[in-house]
Amino acid sequence: ELQNLSVILENLYQKGVLSDEEVRNIQAERDGYDKTRKILDSVMKKGEAACYEFLRIIHVTRKRTLGRPTPLSEKNTGASTGIPQLWKTSCVVPVPKISHPKDLNHFRPT
Length: 110
What we know:
single chain, two-stranded antiparallel sheet
């Protein structure tokens, strides 16, 4: 189910993806699931350009209203595992093998 349906619906109307009548029909649906289904059906019937605009609107709306990372980036930051991001960063310090290194081969990894 889409979140922030009213915001997404208003943006789809403002961008000319959905007509006034389509918006009224979607708003008349009883629950969020039916509204989401109707939005998807309406947008898909309009073709590729409408679908791309819909995806752009979802992306922008999510960034503005949630104020938190998307599930994909949440997974990458370790938030789902409880590992703080700071613990996942590292600093590599090369250790010289000889007293005056001049080449990469004169260092060892740490």
